[in-house]
Amino acid sequence: MFDLSNKRALVTGALGLLGREHVGALTEGGASIAILDVDEGPASDFAHAIHRRFGVDAVGVGADVTDEKSLKDARARIEARIGPIDVLVNNAALNPKVEGNTNVVGNIRVAGNTDDASATAFERYPIEAWQRALDVNVTGMFLCCRVFGAGMAEKGRGSIINIASTYGMVGPNQSLYRRPDGSQKMFKSPDYPTTKGAVLAFTRYLAAYWGHRGVRVNALSPGGVENGQEDWFVTKYSERTPLSRMAAPSDYRGAVVFLASDEASYMTGANLVVDGGWTAW
Ligand SMILES: NC(=O)c1ccc[n+]([C@@H]2O[C@H](COP(=O)([O-])OP(=O)(O)OC[C@H]3O[C@@H](n4cnc5c(N)ncnc54)[C@H](O)[C@@H]3O)[C@@H](O)[C@H]2O)c1
Predict the structure, then answer these.
(1) Cβ(74)–Cβ(51) under 8 Å?
(2) What is the CATH number for 136?
(3) Dihedral sign of CA atoms 190, 71, 213, 252 in order
(4) What is the model's pLDDT at position 117?
(5) Most ligand 1 atoms within 8 A of CB, residue of 10, 12, 17 to mutate
């Protein structure tokens, strides 16, 4: 079961925290792999490392998921190297992180200094940042599905996995981002839950649209991943999670392999929630 050795998979945003895990899981399962991220150099380096480690065919390409021409160029180069894609993981997204630079969404500056959360408040949130998140998180997914999914529909088989989030199902409780001294470190942005809700709706749309063509389209909703956040944040997050901890980056590997594999062949239009129970209460 869960053999991917006859599959060719593409992961977008593959150089990020979870993208690297998705790549590792799919290649360990035996899939040939295409690694897509903004910068070609590191994508190519990662592909070489994966090839050396797992012996699978691997290619790294630089492309922008919001640019259809750039995706079509990437498709031509990927197909020339490993053949047409059977599994697409739409993972690229702008995700303002509490452990990262909370002042910048994409390339758009939203705040003056890292200790000032007021500029990330809804009342002042820059429309450019909102727009860019919609472009990357929603339009990017739409374009990747069209550019890489059309070939799947022609062949009559394929699996698309759209990475959503708990915040596609429940709203952010902004008290999570408040330090023990009562000051607000950041506000989770209004675009993030909005775009993740759209990922879930679009997943159902495309599952219904392409079901009869043999293309399965599912969402995977991860919870928050521990990644060097300050202790107070990890503690707060863990207290709000039934399993009493944040996720490890590796916690989503099994879910990705399952959705990619033929073991999920009667599953489409679904949302696989792997969140330690965050949305259960
Ligand atoms: N980290 C978490 O706690 C968490 C929780 C729930 C859901 N998610 C979701 O998982 C996915 C991955 O999250 P992550 O934490 O690994 O994010 P990340 O920020 O570490 O990685 C995102 C990657 O996407 C790439 N990217 C951004 N814009 C792009 C574009 N226009 N074209 C191509 N690539 C682009 C970035 O270069 C980066 O490598 C996202 O969809 C995110 O919303 C993450």
Answers:
(1) no
(2) 3.40.50.720
(3) negative
(4) 81
(5) 17
